[in-house]
TrEMBL record:
<dbReference type="InterPro" id="IPR009057">
    <property type="entry name" value="Homeodomain-like_sf"/>
</dbReference>
<protein>
    <submittedName>
        <fullName>TetR/AcrR family transcriptional regulator</fullName>
    </submittedName>
</protein>
<dbReference type="InterPro" id="IPR036271">
    <property type="entry name" value="Tet_transcr_reg_TetR-rel_C_sf"/>
</dbReference>
<dbReference type="Pfam" id="PF00440">
    <property type="entry name" value="TetR_N"/>
</dbReference>
<keyword id="KW-0238">DNA-binding</keyword>
<feature type="DNA-binding region" description="H-T-H motif">
    <location>
        <begin position="35"/>
        <end position="54"/>
    </location>
</feature>
<dbReference type="InterPro" id="IPR001647">
    <property type="entry name" value="HTH_TetR"/>
</dbReference>
<feature type="domain" description="HTH tetR-type">
    <location>
        <begin position="11"/>
        <end position="72"/>
    </location>
</feature>
<dbReference type="InterPro" id="IPR050109">
    <property type="entry name" value="HTH-type_TetR-like_transc_reg"/>
</dbReference>
Amino acid sequence: MTERRPRKDAIRNRAAVLAAADALFARCEHPEEVTMADIATAAGVGKGTLFRAFGDRTGLIRALYEARLEPVRTTVEEGPPPLGPATPPLQRVPALLDAILCFKLDNRHLALALEQTGADSPYRTEHYERWHALLRDLLQRIPGPADSGFTAHALLAATRADLVEYLAGEQRTPREELRRQLADFTAGVLGTKERPGPDAEG
């Protein structure tokens, strides 16, 4: 009985910290503006609580990112088409990339903060390796791309948070236009892009 209360407190504190960090990253102009002290104050906990629960700022950002990504990952792993595992590769690849893009658009500053944390390569993060492996395996089942590993990297590069932030934030490209551009790019890579018919005028 005596062990349950600290466990409940820890769960409550973790939820408060993630909610506070989520709100701060959503409102910030630049991800580096959000500090551990800011998050602790907003959550109503001490900085020591943050470091004990998450290790450091990178660990906290990663935990928040994974929590936000969980519904998408669940749909990809268990859901229906076009994201679920029963979808044919030619339809699933563009659907996956569109889902990643939409997630980055909805979580621009958080995704950018994760890509900018620490000295680790963004290509070695767990979520990136997971997306890359899935796309690589799907591309291996599609005739066309000679190097599925490189092609998966190239497709994912079009959804990098810094590019999304530049296009959506600085250039103010509309969301649907970005989705259309990514779909066209993906179709070109996969060889499924429609070409003008013989009667089309130039």
